[in-house]
Each structure stands twice: as C-alpha cells, then as structure tokens.
Amino acid sequence: MSQNFSSPTSHLTQTPLLTHLDAQGQAQMVDVSSKPQTVRQATAAGRVRMQRATFDAIAAGNSPKGDVLGTARLAGIMAAKQTANLIPLCHPLPLQTVEVQIIPDPNLPGYHIEAMVKIKAETGVEMEALTAVSVAALTLYDMAKALEKSICIEEIHLISKTGGKSGDYHYGDNA
C-alpha cells in the first residue's frame, strides 16, 4: 500500500528548522538553558457540540456523574500542569497562571472552552494551553456520555501566544 504524501511544508520556499530533531533525525528535547526568561502567555480554544437535550440536562445540573462543567474545568487546569508528563518532548514548567473557562452556547448547542496559561520562563506554554483545552473537552465528554454518545469535540487550536524569540502569534494571522 504505497501512497505519495507531500510534506506539510512542501509548499514553503524555505523549510523551517525542526529543533526537536538531532543531526541524525532522532527526537530530542530542545536545550533552552541559554535562553532568557521572559513572560510568555498562550491561549487555546475548542468546543464541544452535543444534542439540545444533553446541553439542557448539563445546564440544569442533571447529569448522572454530577458537576460536569466544574469537573471539566478542574481537569483542564490539572492537565496543563501535567503536560510534560503527557507530551514527550515538552519541558516541565512551573506555571504561574492557568485559567480555564467553559462557556455555554445554546445556539451550538454545546460549550466553548478557552484556556490561558502564563509563565516567566525560557520556553513557551502553547502546549500547556492546548492540553488544558483538550483534557477539559475530554472530561466534559466523559461526564456527559451517559446522556449522549454522539458528543463531538471540535476545533481545538491555539488562539494566541505572546513572548519569546519567535514573537507574538494570533490565530488568523499568516504565521
């Protein structure tokens, strides 16, 4: 079964440097010891779509497993703190702030999840913000699956990041 897949960067004129690979192409943790500590912040978002009856049951506090939104929010915060244990090449970081918001959207119906992580360190916290959103969404699914199995986790992505050598990024920019 041979397929020809193009590289995700094949459309670029210059291939970006992959800092997580050594000269032999083996995965390695990036050495950040010579980088200055700067304030860095990242925000990620995603959403969880469900049937109206499931949304209404959660809003009314009628889930068999209890406090769906509170549990999902705490799971997101805990996940951000465990990112280095979950993603192999992430640095363990002393996070200063982790905020997770779960916002109801009756028009979806479902919930928007947003996580903001902030630190003063040598490396960024994008993965921590993305992990927080992902685990909050997975926990919301787990807490509500007794009500519905077709819950859909969608569009987890980085909204913004500030600080660091590569500069700022905002979703929708051409970076």
Q: Architecture, according to CATH?
A: 2-Layer Sandwich
Report the CATH topology name: Alpha-Beta Plaits
The CATH class, by name, is Alpha Beta
Proportion of beta-strand residues: 25-35%
- Given as residue ranges, the uncertain stretches (5+ residues, pLDDT < 50) are 1-13
Largest sheet: 5 strands, antiparallel
Rg over alpha carbons: 19 Å
- Output the structural class: alpha+beta
Query: CATH homologous superfamily - what is it?
Result: Molybdopterin cofactor biosynthesis C (MoaC) domain
Shape: elongated
User: Count of DSSP E strands?
Assistant: 5
Fraction of residues in H or I helices: 25-40%
* Number of individual domains: 1
**H/E order of the elements?**
EHHHEEHEE
The whole-number mean of residue pLDDT values reads 89
Question: Distance N terminus to C terminus?
Answer: 35 Å
Strand neighbour order, sheet with most strands: 2-3-1-4-5
Multimeric organization: single chain
Search tags:
175 residues; alpha+beta; Alpha-Beta Plaits; 5-stranded antiparallel β-sheet; 4 helices; 5 strands; 26% strand; elongated
Describe this structure in words.
Helices cover 26% and strands 26% of the residues. It has 175 residues and is an alpha+beta fold. It has a single domain, classed as Alpha-Beta Plaits. Strands 2-3-1-4-5 form a 5-stranded antiparallel β-sheet. A hairpin with a 4-residue loop joins strand 2 and strand 3.
